[in-house]
Amino acid sequence: MKSVASALFWIGLYLGVVLAPLLALKIGGGPPGSGFWWDFSMGLGFAAMSMMGIQFFLTARFKRATAPFGVDIIYYFHRYLAVIALALVYVHCAIIYVKNPAALGVLNPLEAEWYMTAGRVSLGLFTLLIITALWRKQLRIHYDEWRMAHIVLAVCAVALAMAHIVGVGYYINAAAEWWFWVAYTLIWVWLIVYIRVVKPWMMHKRPYHVTELREERGDSWTLVLKPQGHAGMRFKPGQFAWLTLRQSPWHIKEHPFSFSSSSEVTDRLEFTIKELGNFTSTIKDTKIGQIAYLDGPYGIFSVDRHKGASGFVFIAGGIGAAPMLSMLRTLADRQDKRPMWFLYGNNTWDEVIFREELEQLKERLDLRMIHVLDQPPEGWEGETGFITAKMLKRVLPEDAAKLTYFLCGPEPMTDAVQRGLHGLRVPMGKVHFELFDMV
Measuring CA to CA, which residue among 67, 30, 13, 7 is closest to residue 302? Predict the structure, then answer.
């Protein structure tokens, strides 16, 4: 109930902040001849402006705000809200174009009022920002380069949108309106300073150094970090952190990775990372002694949030086993006696990460290990193909609906597993999964 109340509070606060700029429509008054459609258009524009500003808050990773939902959900929320905000701006422009085209002035930036040009450029930058965010991989844009461009585009788009509002002037004439927009702008500036200056400085004061780099199966590597000059970080098994390696935290080159070590081990942190993208393919080149910085822990994907569970089912594909191993290692260190199942999908037997340790964990836990191979070796007697509803029904107990499930892997796999669990009448509240797709 506490988590639900917290979630409702943050949702209510978000709606309040989005709707607050609409007060400008009620304070002072609009231009001569304005009516319903004009005010409706302005309301859409103000709401979009507010949503654009809040986008910076959503990516600031405030732990209290993200705790009820999980950072992965917040980032998806951030993405979809950006699309909605862009749509509101286009509707805002379309209504004016239909109802009062003279208000748009001339298109030529050499002849148009500066604030109209600022609005049009802001819309263009915002559109470019959305396109590059939704289709980054298809456009083959390097993640680090895209992220820097994303930040610059966002800051410029919001700043120009604010300049457009100030230039139009109808809704900042009254003193109350002026102070409202000043406060809004100062909060937005404070967010940028916090995210890009204060938070990196806090990370810089708590460095880690690389003490070990282990090669794993499946083109994966385990990075071992120890705190340098501080007590380190406590986390819940299954959580993750943003890792900055070989760079200053001010360089904005951080990447999210799940902890793979036990949360009961406090003198070191481990991340198991598969070579999948531009950054992850360089992990193998990491040198012992190099400095690293962490921002975390984050996430609600953890057995610790379900202490009353009667048993657990872990379902993973490939490197999705990393947070599962963290949870299994932790439960083993705690001598947990509850029944557990681990369905682990891979292409081949040689790619199965943690293969030997998973067998050892069977001796410390009440664990049923089910390997599922797409390309099994000759003589393989285990499960093959993909994890399907029929397989789940075959390997799980009759009271499967009472267990708590954790899913992590490729999106097609997690989608198929969710459908299969639904067929087994497993309540959706007992199914938990990660949504990150950043490499």
Answer: 67
Is the domain of 175 the same as that of 237? no
Residue 349 to residues 218, 352, 355, 356, 372: CA-CA distances in angstroms?
A: 10, 6, 9, 12, 9
Return the amino acid letter for 13: L
Give the distance, in angstroms, between the CA of residue 239 and the centroid of all CA atoms in the same chain.
12
Tokens at 308, concatenated: 């009353």
Q: State whether 198 and 85 are in the same domain.
A: yes
Whether residue 269 sits in one domain with residue 213: yes
Residue 297, preceding bond cis, omega within 30 degrees?
A: yes
Comparing C-alpha atoms, which of 47, 21, 39, 60 is closest to residue 184?
21
Asked whether residue 318 is assigned to any structural domain, the reply reads yes
Listed residues 280, 298, 316: the one ending a domain: 298
Question: Angle at CA 388, nearest 5°, toward 386 and 393?
Answer: 135
Which tens digit of pLDDT belongs to each residue from 37-61? Answer: 887 888 888 888 888 888 888 888 8
The rounded distance, in Å, linking the Cα atoms of 315 and 319 is: 12
Which range of residues forms the domain containing residue 403? 305-433
The CA radius of gyration of the chain, in Å to the nearest whole number, is 25
Does a structural domain hold residue 438? no
Residue-wise pLDDT for 221-267, tens only, equals 999 999 999 989 999 999 999 999 988 888 878 899 999 999 999 89
Q: Is residue 356 part of a domain?
A: yes
Is residue 309 domain-shared with residue 425, that is, in the same domain? yes
pTM of the model: 0.83
Nearest to 336 by CA among 371, 304, 299: 304
The rounded distance, in Å, linking the Cα atoms of 220 and 214 is 9
